[in-house]
Amino acid sequence: MTAFARKNADKPPMLVYEDVRKRYGSFIALDGVSLHVNAGEVVCLIGPSGSGKSTLLRCTNALETIDGGEIRFEGRPLPTKDSEIRQIRQRMGMVFQSFELFPHQTALENVTIGLTTVRKMAAEEAKARALALLAKVGLADKTANYPANLSGGQQQRVAIARALAMEPHVMLFDEPTSALDPETVGEVLNVMRNLAQEGMTMIVVTHEMSFAQRVANWVVVFERGQLLEQGPPQQIFEAPTVERTRDFLGHLGWNG
Amino acid sequence: MKLDWSIVWQSRWLLFEGALVTILLTALTMLIAVPGGIVLALMRNSRLKPIALFATGFVELFRNLPLLLLVYWAFYVMPVLTGFGLPPFTTGLVALCLNVSAYNSETFRSGINSIRRGQSEAGLALGMSRLEVFRQIVLPQAWRRVLPILASTWVSLFKDTSLVSVIAVGELAHTAMQIRSQSFRVLEMLTAMAAIYWVLGYPQAKIVDWIHRKYGVRE
Amino acid sequence: MDLDFSPLIDSWRFIASGLGLTIVLSVAAVVCSFVLGLAVGLGRMYGPGWLRVLLVFYIDSMRAIPVFVVLVWIYFAVPIISGHSFDPFWAALIGITIHVAAYVAEVIRAGITSIRKGQTQAGLAIGMSGAQIVRKILLPQATVRMLPAFGSIVSVTIKDTAIAAVIAVPELMRQAETVAGQSYRPIEVFTTVMVIYFLLIFPVTRLIDWFYGRVAHLGRS
Fold first, then answer.
1. Which terminus of chain B is more exposed, N or C, with fewer CB under 10 A?
2. What are the chain C neighbours of A104 within 8 Å (beta carbons)?
3. How far apart are CA B56 and CA C123, in angstroms?
C-alpha cells in the first residue's frame, strides 16, 4: 500500500474501531475489524451482503452492542450507560435504508421532533431550523406533506434533514439508496455529495460504486466480517492489491 | 363468613353435565355456522344484487346486536314463526348460529378478499370455472388466514354459550346458578363456576395462540 | 300474528331511561377499559418480569371466563367477601371494564409489535429515550393501526352492557324484559329494542371504520 496521506491525518481521528467483534448466535458478523475515520473524511464501506458493513455502522451508534474490541468516538470509548449513549447518539446522525420517517408526522414535524423532544428546543426555533434544512435538501415546498405523499427519494431527503437537524459530528448512511427507484437515487446522492463538500464526516455503506469512487476519500472493502482491503478510491477501484477485491468488483460488473 | 366448599364436590356430576352441554352447544353451533358463514360470504360477493343485499343486511344485523337480546328474541319469536314450542336448547342454538354465522361470514369474506385477484385471474386464464377457481385456488390459500380467526371465534362462542342460561338451557352457567340458588352457597358456586370456565377456557386460549403462531400469515 | 305496540308507547319513558343508562354505561365502560387496557398493555410489554407474568395471567383469564360469569361474581360474590353490597351499575361497570381491558391490552400489544424495529431505531438514532419513543413514535402509529380492532371492541362493549340486565341494572335490555313481561307482548318489545340497539351500534362501528379509512396512511411506516 502506498503511503497515501489521508485527509486530516494530522489530527486525532474521529472514530476508531479496534479489533471489533460481533456475533449473532453462531453467526460471526464482525471478526476483528480495525479501521479509523478522520474528521471531514467520507469513508465508504463496500462489500457483499452480509459481510458486516451495516453491522459495523449500527454498532457505531450503539444500536447493536459489540462482543469484543473497542469503538472510540472523539477519543473516548462508547459508553454503556443508557443516558450517556443517548448523548453520543445526538452527535451522530443515521440515515436508514428504509428511510424510517415517522408516518404520523409531516416532513416538517419529522425534522423538528428531534429538536423539540431531545434537545428541548423551543418550537419556533426548531421550526425555523427545520425549514432551513428542508430547503437545503430541496424540499422547501413539501414541508407539510406526510410521508405517504412523498416519493422514496423525497422521503430519504427528509430523513437526511432529520438527522442533520441534530448537528451531528458524523453522519452514518446505511445503504441510503438501495430502496429507491433508479430515477430518485440521483437526487439523494446529490444531497450526500453536497454534504461531503461542506466537510461533513460521513460513513456510507453503499452499493453505488460510482458514488464511492467520486466522492469517497477512503474506501473499505468487507468480506465475511473481515476487512479485505482499505485505501483511497483510486487504489480500490483501479488497482486493488487483494485478488478478492478485484473479484468482488468484477462480480458487480464494475469496469472502472 | 362461613364457607362450605363441599357443595362443589357434591354437585360435580351436575356441573360436569353442564360443561358437556356447553361443549355440545359450541360444537353444534360451529358445525352449522362455519358452512353458514361461507355461504353468506359467497352471497355477499355475488353479482346478483338482491342476494348480495340480503346477505349484507343479514350479516350487519346479527353482528350489531347483543347476543342476549337475540336469545330472548328467538325464545319468543320462534314459537310464533314455527307454530310449535321448541326446547330451549334449540332456541339457544338458533340464536347462537345466527350470531356466529354473521361473524364467520366476515371472517371468510376478508380471507377470500385477501387473496390477490391475480391468483383468480391466473386460474381463469387456465380455463377453470369460477367454482373451480374458488375451490382449488382461493379456498386453500384463504384457509390459512381464516383458521386463526375461526379458532378465536370458537373460544368467544364457548364463553357466549353462558348467555343462553337465561332461557334455562342446562349448560354450565345455568347449572351452576341453579345449584347456587338452591343451596344458598353463593360464593362457593360462583367461584367454582368461574374456575371451571377458566380450566376449560385457558387451554383453548393457548391453543388459539399456537394456531396464530403456526398459521399466521404476514406478507 | 296480531301486533300491538301500545305497551311500548305507554312505557316509552321507561324504555328511554334504559337507553340512557345503556349509553352512560357504554361510554363509561369504553373509557375505563381503554385506560386500564393501556396501562395493562404497556405494563405487559415494558414492565418488570413479575408484573408481566401477573398481567399475562390476568389477560389470559379474561379470555377464558365469560363476561356473564365476571359480572355475576362481582355482584353476588364480592359483597359476601367484603361485607357490603354494590350498586348493580358499579358492579357492571367494574366487571365489563375488567373484562374488556384485557382485550384492549392485547390489541395494544399487537399494534405496537406490528411496527417495524426501524422506527424505534430511527428514534434511538436521534437520541430519544425509550419512553419518548413509545410515547411519540410507537403509540401514535399503533393507535391508527388499531382503530379497526378498537372499533370492534367498542361494539362488543356496548353489546356487553346488555348482559348487565342479568344483575338487574336498569339499562335498555332489562327495561325491555320488564315491559315484555308485563305486557305479554314480547315480540313487539324485543323487535323494537333490536332496532334501537342496531341504530346504536351500527353507526358507531361504521364511523370508526370510516375514520380509519381517512387516517390509515398515518399508521403505515
1. C
2. 140-141, 144, 218-219
3. 44
